[in-house]
């Protein structure tokens, strides 16, 4: 039985005061059947670790460097994140693929750094609207997944969480229907199964792209949707909690 995970991707939002108010609103959180994770910007990782760890909420980063250490100004090593107590790292978000031109080659290096540091990577994949309309969704998703999965040892691959985030649904208010999302999640799990066999059943597959309190329950009712990667709605503690409650059902 896979435990659901609700991960909040704060992107470049927040400040000390807002973050504190968010954590205070989660003081009474009681969600025994799902895990919660917040991924704030780098400068707020320590603040959120201090505030959220006592509540049993994990903290993740939004990226890590492709090198272990060295003269790389502005970069943050995976081992530094692990040193702080960060447990997860988002990798390959479509905004990074688009705005930072992150390639699969770079992503693989980051993934290897994250795994070596003992972080659990959440790797994002997703098709654009043009690709969906051209009926290329399956090809695009499989090529994004296998570009990484085929380069990993099975025991490494088993550590990776995948987030299916259709690019056309991110921040747009458009959401994949539960059946559209389930079809892609099943495709990803089947692909992982070729390398992992039965172990692929343990891998968490999150859906992301305008997950809100009112669509979360129907998405999470699908057999291969193991939770959500939530952007906008994760900035609001009550929305985030409501999404967590939907995952409890
Ligand atoms: P959204 O973002 O929930 O605001 O669509 C999701 C994401 O980019 O991870």
Primary descriptors:
249 residues, alpha/beta, 8-stranded parallel β-barrel, 8 strands
Low-confidence stretches: none
Mean pLDDT: 97
Count of alpha and pi helical runs: 11
Count all strands and give the number: 8
Largest sheet: 8 strands, parallel, barrel
Bound molecules: 2-phosphoglycolic acid
The amount of helix comes to 40-55%
In percent, how much strand structure appears in the residues?
Answer: 15-25%
Helix-and-strand structural type: alpha/beta
Major β-sheet strand ordering: 1-2-3-4-5-6-7-8
Estimated radius of gyration: 17 Å
Gross geometry = globular
In N-to-C order, the SSE pattern is EHEHEHEHHEHHHEHEHEH
Distance between the termini: 14 Å
Describe the overall structure.
By secondary structure, the chain is α/β, with parallel strands linked by helices. It has 11 helices and 8 strands. An 8-stranded parallel barrel has the order 1-2-3-4-5-6-7-8, surrounded by 6 helices. Helix 1 runs parallel beside helix 2 (45-52) and helix 7 runs parallel beside helix 9 (178-196). The two termini are 14 Å apart. The mean pLDDT is 97. 2-phosphoglycolic acid is lined by residues 9, 165, 170-171, 208-211, 229-233.
Task: Provide a concise account of the structure shown.
The chain has 249 residues and is an alpha/beta fold. 42% of the residues lie in helices and 15% in strands.
């Amino acid at each position: 039985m896979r435990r659901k995970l609700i991960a909040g991707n704060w992107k470049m939002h927040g400040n000390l005061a807002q973050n504190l108010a968010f954590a205070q609103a989660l003081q009474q959180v009681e969600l025994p059947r799902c895990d919660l994770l917040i991924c704030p910007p780098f400068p707020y990782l320590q603040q959120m670790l201090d505030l959220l760890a006592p509540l049993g909420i994990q903290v993740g980063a939004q990226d890590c460097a492709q090198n272990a250490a060295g003269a790389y100004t502005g970069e943050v090593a995976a081992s530094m994140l692990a040193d702080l107590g960060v447990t997860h790292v988002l990798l390959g978000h479509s905004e990074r693929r688009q705005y930072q031109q992150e390639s699969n080659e770079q992503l693989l290096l980051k993934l290897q750094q994250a795994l070596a540091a003992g972080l659990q990577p959440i790797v994002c994949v997703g098709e654009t609207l043009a690709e969906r309309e051209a009926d290329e969704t399956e090809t695009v998703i499989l090529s994004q997944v296998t570009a990484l999965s085929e380069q990993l040892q099975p025991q490494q691959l088993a550590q990776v969480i995948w987030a299916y985030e259709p690019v056309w649904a991110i921040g747009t208010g458009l959401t994949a229907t539960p059946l559209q999302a389930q079809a892609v999640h099943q495709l990803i799990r089947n692909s992982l199964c070729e390398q992992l066999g039965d172990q692929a059943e343990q891998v968490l597959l999150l859906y992301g792209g305008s997950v809100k309190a009112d669509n979360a329950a129907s998405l999470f009712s699908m057999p291969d949707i193991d939770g959500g990667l939530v952007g906008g709605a994760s900035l609001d503690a009550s929305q985030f909690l409501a999404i967590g409650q939907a995952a409890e059902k």
